[in-house]
Amino acid sequence: MTEPRHRLMGYVREEIMPHRFCAGCGCGTVLNVFVNAVDELAMDPTRMVCVSGIGCSAWIPSPYFRSDTLHTTHGRPIAYATGVKIMRPDLNVVVIAGDGDIAGIGGNHLIHAARRNIDLSVLMVNNMIYGMTGGQVAPTTPLGVKTSTTPHRNIEPPFKVAEVVAAAGASYVARWTTYHVFQLKKAMQRAMTKKGFSFIEIVSQCPENYGRRIGLKTGAELLRKIKEQSVRVKKAQEMSEEELQHKIVVGELCDLDRPEFVTQLHEVTKEQVESFSLENAS
Amino acid sequence: MLVKINTSFCKGCDICIEFCPTDVFEQSGTLNRKGYYVPVVARVEDCTGCRLCDLLCPELAIVITEEQGNGDVVADVDNDD
Fold first, then answer.
1. B54: which chain A residues are within 8 Å (Cβ-Cβ)?
2. In the Cβ-directed half-sphere of A261, how many Cα atoms lie within 13 Å?
3. Does the domain made of B2-65 have the CATH classification 3.30.70.20?
4. What is the pLDDT of residue A282?
5. A46-77 pLDDT, tens per residue?
6. Which of A51, A67, A126, B6 could disulfide-link A3, Cβ–Cβ 3.0 to 4.6 Å?
7. Are A216 and A196 in contact (CB under 8 A)?
8. Is the Cβ–Cβ distance between A15 and A45 less than 8 Å?
9. Contact B5 A31 (CB under 8 A)
10. pLDDT digits (tens, 9 = 90+) for A173-193
11. Residue A61's Cα: distance from chain center in Å?
């Protein structure tokens, strides 16, 4: 019997499908929404470079998305992506990696890339734990959760990554979950077309290493919980810090036009080259 | 609307059953080759074509075809190529 084929199979490396993500993992949903976003924008995958680091979410573009991919060292995808963008500003550079990669180990790269406002689209898949390595505490793990490195309970408050990036100077920042697929698709399209640093935090489910530790055994149960915890930005403004403690604030956090780094860098270089050749001529 | 499930991709996470607004999917007792219980399309006539399952499915295993008045298929489905 021939199986029905998804209409966007051309965007993924079909020869290695089905993918290796666990049953009910949010990374698959992110891949699904990403190929839909790319297809609707009619973007050419051969004009894209997807950069990822280490972790489950880093597998979304590399190997599954059919474009040029750069699978880099742990925590450094933004650093590598900066290099790619500076040398090839004509290409669309997208970073897809996890919270441990981008906010934990590569936290400084993230803040400074946002401050410089480099024209990158960063999609951070936040599953609230280090899933691939066995469920260690991440900077995004909520308070009170038992993980393999906080066996009693987590006492570190989680990082509000999207808010940090918005404050650091990014052009576009949004937070959505793997339940809000239509909004997430629109946000991805906005991020990929926006000039400047665009960042989307995608709150995702890890049923194996996070869900089981909080008593939710399947991806569907965990996704239902994420859906119930979500609060829109506007509503969240009227809520107190205590009320928001176990909530996920979803929506667009900023959408601004700020001077972009790579364009300015090339302008400065051009000015210097011109002034140098004038000096030589006189 | 025509809803099909690629049973060789499906890992039986049941997200489609849990989130379909009109309860089109149902659990089944059928195992696929990898040993996952795959859902079945039980009430296809209730499908409104909202495509929530299509986007939510982590396996890209749900294939939805729109059929227009003259029976023309809008989205491609079969892997004939």
1. 32
2. 20
3. yes
4. 62
5. 999 999 999 999 999 999 999 999 999 999 99
6. B6
7. no
8. no
9. no
10. 999 999 999 999 999 999 999
11. 11
Smallest Cβ distance to A6: which of B14, B52, B63?
A: B63
User: Which CA distances in Å does A218 have to A5, A7, A176, B11, B38?
Assistant: 26, 27, 20, 12, 15
Question: Residue A206 has which token pair?
Answer: 């890890």
**AA identity, residue A15:** E
Q: What domains lie within chain A, and their CATH numbers?
A: 9-281 (3.40.50.970)
A102-133 burial, b for 16+ CB within 10 Å, e for fewer?
bbbbbbebbbebbebbbbbbbbbbbbbbbbbe
Chain-chain contact of A219 with B58 (C-beta, under 8 angstroms):
yes
Mention every residue, 6+ apart, whose C-beta is less than 8 A from residue B54.
Answer: A32, B62, B63, B64
Burial class (CB in 10 A: 0-12, 13-18, 19+), A31: buried
Chain A residues with beta carbon closer than 8 angstroms to that of B61: 6, 18
CA-to-CA distance for A156 and A131, rounded, in angstroms? Answer: 18
Other C-beta atoms lying within 10 Å of the C-beta of residue A75: 22
Residues A2, B35: contact at Cβ < 8 Å?
no
Rg of chain B taking only CA atoms, in angstroms: 13
Q: Looking at beta carbons, which residues of chain B come within 8 Å of A226?
A: none
Helix, strand, or coil (residue A39): helix
Reduced to 3 DSSP states, what percent helix, strand and coil does chain A have, rounded to the nearest 5? Answer: 40, 15, 40
Sign of the CA dihedral with A25 first, then A93, A176, and B56 last: negative
Task: Kindly determine whether residue A5 and residue B55, on different chains, have CB atoms separated by under 8 Å.
Answer: no
What would the two tokens of residue A155 be?
């006492």
Instruction: Give the pair of three-digit tokens for residue A151.
Output: 């066996």
